[in-house]
Amino acid sequence: MAKFNRILITGAAGALGTVLRENAQHLADTLRLTDIADMGEAKANEEIVQADLGDFNTVLEMTKNVDAVIHLGGMALENTFETILNANIRGFYNLYEACRQNGVKRIVFGSSNHAIGFYEREAMIDSFVPHRPDSLYGVSKAFGEDLARYYWDKFGIETLSIRIGSCFPEPLDRRMLATWLSYRDFIQLCDRGLNTTRVGFTVVYGVSANRENFWNNQQAAFIGYQPQDSAEIYREKVEANSSQPNPNDTAVVYCGGSFPAAGHFEDK
Q: I need a labelling partner for 16 at 20 to 30 A (CA). Which of 7, 75, 179, 263 fits?
């Protein structure tokens, strides 16, 4: 029997939300799924709520009778400030405040490596370093982690923040040989975030057991995370399909890859 009666998954129409929808039935008796986009018909153990996270009253309603939340909603890439503001900042605040008012005490947050993307790769940072976002998107994820910290310190809402590296069926380029997170390991992280007895406010990196790695993920041992997959099995394929990059290229120097190298999104 699942530990939870009902969990809410935001961003359920997105790539990772879809993966969870298909593989998270063991986490709760009922999955309440929400997204601004269409999610199709509800299955037997699902509830569908199409909603904009920027609307507080809607978020307040959809967090009622929920035991825990996996938050993947919001803009998943760089965009204009107004888009980031509504989806990733206002929407994030609305979720936490609604959870506080409805007594929800556990959240798994899909954060991003772009909250620390301006650290150089060889720094081998851990999850305690100050934020160094590489984009407005990264700024929004840094805000989310700080807001989660605030709601833990002040209201006792526990959050596991997962700084997702590159979560795809397989690594797509040479950078992802270090940052890749398999779907199986992503699901395990969500499971540990919900089922670890106490997480308080914890930040971990969402990466598999890759031979190359930019980050010290020792904090993940605290929740019992044991990655099952590695990008190494794809190395030959990836290297055959890509040239050796210039080591002084901005996209190579920094953890965030192409994000630090890109200009300001709103510049013409």
A: 263
Q: Residue 119's CB: how many other CB atoms inside 10 A?
A: 22
Q: Give the whole-angstrom CA distance, residue 228 versus residue 230.
A: 7
What's the rounded Cα separation, in Å, for the pair 120 and 250? 10
Residue closest to 27 by CA, chosen among 15, 40, 45, 43: 45
Angle between helices 15-23 and 183-195 (to 10 degrees): 70
Q: What is the CATH code of the structural domain delimited by 4-261?
A: 3.40.50.720
* List 93, 119, 137, 151, catalytic entry: 137
Catalytic residue status for 137: yes
Digit-coded pLDDT (tens) for 160-191: 999 999 999 999 999 999 999 999 999 999 99
Residue type, 44: A
